[in-house]
Specification:
It comes from Uliginosibacterium aquaticum. This is Antitoxin. The chain is an alpha+beta fold. It has a domain of 49 residues: YefM-like domain (YefM-like fold), CATH 3.40.1620.10. It is built from four helices and three strands; from the N terminus they run βααββαα. Strands 1-2-3 form a three-stranded mixed beta sheet. A hairpin with a 2-residue loop joins strand 2 and strand 3. The longest helix has 8 residues. It is flat.
């Protein structure tokens, strides 16, 4: 697996070459010399995201209804703004 780097300008001028490079590994796209995006082949994206739970699955938290939680009231935290 190789790693290629394209500036934003290079990417815009030769998207075809960036897509070809992504077939053999991730392509880092930089903006003003700093990494800003990564271009992956769709197969690589599927491989990386396979088996990962969705945000909906993570938020569902099965079994949470059995947790007895009664948080204490937060008092004395808020106070009026002071303007000088």
């Amino acid at each position: 697996m190789s790693l290629a780097t394209f500036s934003s300008r290079q990417f815009n001028q030769d998207t075809s070459r960036a897509k070809h490079a992504a077939a053999s590994g991730p392509v880092i796209i930089t903006d003003r010399g700093r990494p800003s995006h990564v271009l992956l082949s769709f197969e690589e994206y599927q491989r990386l995201s396979a088996g990962q739970p969705s945000i909906i699955d993570l938020l569902a938290m099965p079994g949470v209804e059995d947790v007895d939680l009664t948080p204490p009231r937060a008092e004395g935290i808020a106070r009026p703004a002071e303007f000088e």
